Automatic annotation (TrEMBL):
<dbReference type="GO" id="GO:0019632">
    <property type="term" value="P:shikimate metabolic process"/>
</dbReference>
<keyword id="KW-0057">Aromatic amino acid biosynthesis</keyword>
<dbReference type="GO" id="GO:0004765">
    <property type="term" value="F:shikimate kinase activity"/>
</dbReference>
<comment type="similarity">
    <text>Belongs to the shikimate kinase family.</text>
</comment>
<dbReference type="InterPro" id="IPR027417">
    <property type="entry name" value="P-loop_NTPase"/>
</dbReference>
<keyword id="KW-0809">Transit peptide</keyword>
<keyword id="KW-0547">Nucleotide-binding</keyword>
<comment type="function">
    <text>Catalyzes the specific phosphorylation of the 3-hydroxyl group of shikimic acid using ATP as a cosubstrate.</text>
</comment>
<protein>
    <recommendedName>
        <fullName>shikimate kinase</fullName>
        <ecNumber>2.7.1.71</ecNumber>
    </recommendedName>
</protein>
<dbReference type="Pfam" id="PF01202">
    <property type="entry name" value="SKI"/>
</dbReference>
<keyword id="KW-0028">Amino-acid biosynthesis</keyword>
<dbReference type="GO" id="GO:0009073">
    <property type="term" value="P:aromatic amino acid family biosynthetic process"/>
</dbReference>
<dbReference type="InterPro" id="IPR000623">
    <property type="entry name" value="Shikimate_kinase/TSH1"/>
</dbReference>
<dbReference type="GO" id="GO:0008652">
    <property type="term" value="P:amino acid biosynthetic process"/>
</dbReference>
<keyword id="KW-0934">Plastid</keyword>
<keyword id="KW-0460">Magnesium</keyword>
<comment type="pathway">
    <text>Metabolic intermediate biosynthesis; chorismate biosynthesis; chorismate from D-erythrose 4-phosphate and phosphoenolpyruvate: step 5/7.</text>
</comment>
């Protein structure tokens, strides 16, 4: 039986971590002669628009594949792209969306551990953008101290002031994928900076976040240092409290990527099986939806 596939996500393997590290993340330069490109329909133009400037739907990836070996759950769920190399899908989608971005930056927001850094690196590589991690830039700005040290020595508001300065600096640049700190969404000023680009909320269930963070430890995450109990329970408790405070703020983002929805599309029981590449593809699909609005 043949299955026609137009777009979607693949059941893939974990991305090679060496590939993730390829983009340098320390320089914040952008060419002075940068000019915004018009949305025309020439080569490399935005496919979401017709000559009259109206948005249209495009199906870029049309591939035939055999449905043999595809789990029934995947086919039943409508997620029929299991046989693709998801890196190739990401590449194709990036090429399609890139002209529509007009060089605008992509800001990934979300709770700590939601994968902003991991997914951000994959996405930046696919788009040919530079990747920047706000926490790292703050650490550099404060003289090479870690986030945990900055919290300890100077307090949270000092850290937040530096976070705002970093976002302000980034907002004047183009073609960046930015991994913001988990708490960047709480200050309205930060949103004003991020509005120069496109913001995307990586929405990951708290249980999955707690599992990931417990696996790597909370040393680098000062806001998780306070509670008592077993590592998973105390992380879960603190994350729940933070989410209670911030849930609405994350929803200010231009687009939301629900990792739970991706898992459902792919027929996965566990959201932890959704790869960063699959999430990056969904980021682009949701940006596409946002640009069509
Ligand atoms: N899709 C994924 N599946 C499984 N584990 C993942 C996934 N994405 C990220 N991780 C793991 O989760 C942990 C947190 O990821 P990452 O550092 O990218 O999150 P973050 O949102 O940047 O966190 P923070 O805001 O605290 O810096 C890492 O150990 C990473 O390897
Ligand atoms: O959720 C938060 O408030 C934080 C998340 C991290 O990325 C760091 O920015 C810092 O640990 C604070």
């Amino acid at each position: 039986m043949e299955a026609k596939v137009s777009q979607g996500l693949q059941l893939g393997t974990w991305i090679n971590p060496q590939k993730l590290a390829r983009k340098p993340s320390s320089s914040l330069q952008f060419p002075h002669n940068y000019e915004e490109q018009r949305w025309d329909n020439g080569p490399g133009s935005c496919p979401l628009r017709t000559n009259k400037g109206k948005l249209r739907r495009t199906l870029v990836l049309k591939v035939s594949c055999s449905s043999e070996n595809v789990p029934a759950s995947v086919l039943d769920s409508g997620s029929i792209s299991a046989l693709f190399d998801e890196s190739q899908i990401l590449k194709n989608k990036s090429e399609e969306i890139k002209p529509c971005l007009n060089g605008r930056c992509i800001y990934l927001v979300g709770m700590m551990g939601s994968g902003k850094t991991t997914v951000g690196k994959v996405l930046s590589e696919a788009l040919g953008y530079s990747f920047h991690d706000c926490d790292t830039l703050i650490e550099q700005a404060v003289g090479g101290t870690t986030v945990a040290e900055i919290f300890k020595l100077h307090g949270e508001s000092f850290f937040r002031d530096n976070e705002t300065k970093v976002l302000q600096k980034l907002s004047s640049m183009h073609r960046l994928v930015v991994s913001t700190g988990g708490g960047a969404v709480v200050r309205p000023t930060n949103w004003r900076h991020m509005q120069k680009g496109i913001s995307v909320w990586l929405d990951v269930p708290l249980e999955a976040l707690a599992r990931r963070i417990t696996a790597v430890g909370t040393v680098s995450r000062p806001l998780l240092h306070h509670d008592y109990g077993d590592p998973y329970s105390k992380t879960m408790k603190r994350l729940s409290a933070l989410y209670e405070e911030r849930g609405e703020a994350y929803a200010n983002a231009n687009a939301r990527v629900s990792v739970e929805n991706i898992a459902a599309k792919l027929g996965y029981q566990d959201v932890c099986n959704v790869t960063p590449t699959a999430i990056a593809i969904e980021v682009l699909l949701q940006i596409e939806n946002f640009l069509r609005e």
